[in-house]
Amino acid sequence: MTEPATRRFRALFISDIHLGTRGCQADKLLDFLRHHEADTIYLVGDIVDGWALRSSWYWPQQHNDVVQKLLRQSRKGVRLIYIPGNHDEFLRDYYGTHFGGIEVVENTIHEAADGKRYLVVHGDMFDLVVTQARWLALLGDKAYDFAIKANRVFNAMRRIFGAPYWSLSKWAKMKVKNAVNYIGAFEKALATEAQHHKVDGVICGHIHTAALHDDFGLRYINCGDWVESCTAVAENQDGTFEIITWIHDGRVKAPAQLPARAQAA
Fold first, then answer.
1. I want to staple 225 with a disulfide (CB 3.0 to 4.6 A). Which of 16, 113, 178, 256 is the partner?
2. Closest residue by Cα to residue 235 from 122, 121, 72, 111
3. Sequence-ordered alpha helix ranges (H) in the chain
């Protein structure tokens, strides 16, 4: 297999790494960061999973390596902006401060190369389960952890028979009508918030579902996650965006982009 070339972008957006959990695919993220560089890297929430670390400590060397890799990027002159999510909400007490050159902010506006402006926010404050029923969010988090563990066993069996990786939890999420409706409601809420900010789009995370579309009259972009899908969002030098999927054998999947008619809008 040919080693992928290093790609340089104007900006990278990464969310939902969940360092401190067994489901975090830190090895894939490290490999991704070795082959992708940017002038600015946005960490769009749930980078560290404080919920999981409070219940049981899990911090292998690769998780530390991710932190060190990002800190080295900062020392090399890359601008790093950290927007905490609900799982790393302990950092919300530190808005306006810097850690090793990493800026911690509540949200921010990213101006793309083509002059379009995007609200960058994790998105949990637009999730009614998180804001109105925290106990249900915690319960759902435990259920998700169980699904990820079951998924590892399931895929270990698939590897024995030469079958490719398949996400049980993602399949279930997309098959359940209520889950599909939840994703649509979340996207619409974020798009409405972007309209209130008078910007051209929104870049977020939180729901672990990468997306890039104009369905609500402006650009909606979700970074996805590094638990299952291993996705990031990149801005090219001309201001166009793409979703990069770093698939499970280390190869890069063809980028997801908007159709030409949408990019020209």
1. 16
2. 111
3. 26-35, 50-55, 61-75, 128-132, 134-160, 168-175, 177-196, 260-263
Q: How far is CA 26 from CA 33, 35, 166, 222, in A?
A: 10, 14, 19, 20
118 burial type by CB count under 10 A (0-12 exposed, 13-18 middle, 19+ buried): buried
Assigned token pair, 171: 């399949």
**What confidence category does residue 251 fall into, taking pLDDT thresholds of 50, 70 and 90?**
low
Per-residue burial over 65-102, b = 16 or more CB atoms within 10 Å of its CB, e = otherwise: ebbeebeebbeeebebbbbbbbbbbebeeeeeeeeeeb
198 vs 117: CA distance, rounded Å: 9
Per-residue model confidence as pLDDT tens digits over 236-245: 999 999 999 9
Look up residue 65 and give its two tokens.
């390596």
| 30 vs 209: CA distance, rounded Å | 21
Q: How many C-beta neighbours within 10 Å does residue 191 have?
A: 21
Give the C-alpha separation, 50 to 62, whole Å: 17
Q: Please state the pTM of the whole predicted model.
A: 0.79
Measured between alpha carbons, how far is 251 from 135 in angstroms, rounded to an integer?
Answer: 38
In single-letter form, the type of residue at position 128 comes to L
Give Cβ neighbours of residue 171 (< 8 Å, ≥ 6 apart). none
pLDDT digits (tens, 9 = 90+) for 18-74: 999 999 999 999 999 999 999 999 999 999 999 899 989 999 999 999 999 999 999
In this predicted model, which residue has the larger pLDDT, 207 or 172?
207
Question: How many whole angstroms separate alpha carbon 228 and alpha carbon 218?
Answer: 27
